[in-house]
Amino acid sequence: MDNKNKKVIRDIILIGASTGGPNAIEKVITGFTQDINAAVLVVQHMPSGFTKAFAERLNKKCRLEVLEARDGYKIEKNKVYVAPGGYHMVVKEPGVIRLNQEPPVWGVRPAVDKLFISASSVFSNRIISVVLTGMGKDGAQGTIEVKRNDGITIVQDEETCVIYGMPKVAFETGYVDYVVPIDKIASKIQSLMNN
């Protein structure tokens, strides 16, 4: 790929996690500085009722504004949107969050794949996706779609995962660009954003 003539702006960060995810997500989000100049969309496998408290806790610890997503929210930079438990979070043109209660994917709702795949069709090469600790294979198909649309794909390394399931399956697709320890993911994302 020849990026010499045209600089790609990477300003959409997608994060998916399951078991062990809340602490991992907190490490990534609190590692960002205010001038990240990107929007962050998060799917954490959690039942309904828990995601609002999770978003509020992150909001207190983080420089960026963290919200539990609502249907119709416009995606804005320097905001973090957490998918509400019990709802898939998808992205529609021109960058609007939609929530739905379509059937679970891989037994979960929200599903990482739903977010990654829908965002890829809207934002294509502007995306950096991250699959963090968790059981199962949610996020693998989405990782493929992000890479096929010229986004950048990251997974958490085995050593720092509580459960090396989702990152492992995503890595095994052959579509992962970087394998990174949890405490280095925020800085890795920031270094990639304007390359």
TrEMBL record:
Major enzyme class: hydrolase
Cellular component per GO, a single term: cytoplasm
CDD domains: CheB_Rec
Alphabetized GO MF terms: phosphorelay response regulator activity; protein-glutamate methylesterase activity
Keyword Hydrolase: yes
EC number: 3.1.1.61
Keyword Hydrolase: yes
Reactions catalysed, as given in the entry: [protein]-L-glutamate 5-O-methyl ester + H2O = L-glutamyl-[protein] + methanol + H(+)
A Pfam cross-reference name: CheB_methylest
Residues at the catalytic site: 18, 45, 138
PROSITE patterns, per database record: CHEB (PS50122)
Biological process annotations from GO: chemotaxis
Top-level division of the source organism's lineage: Bacteria
Every CheB-type methylesterase domain range: 10-195
Keywords tagged on the record: Chemotaxis, Hydrolase
Protein name: protein-glutamate methylesterase
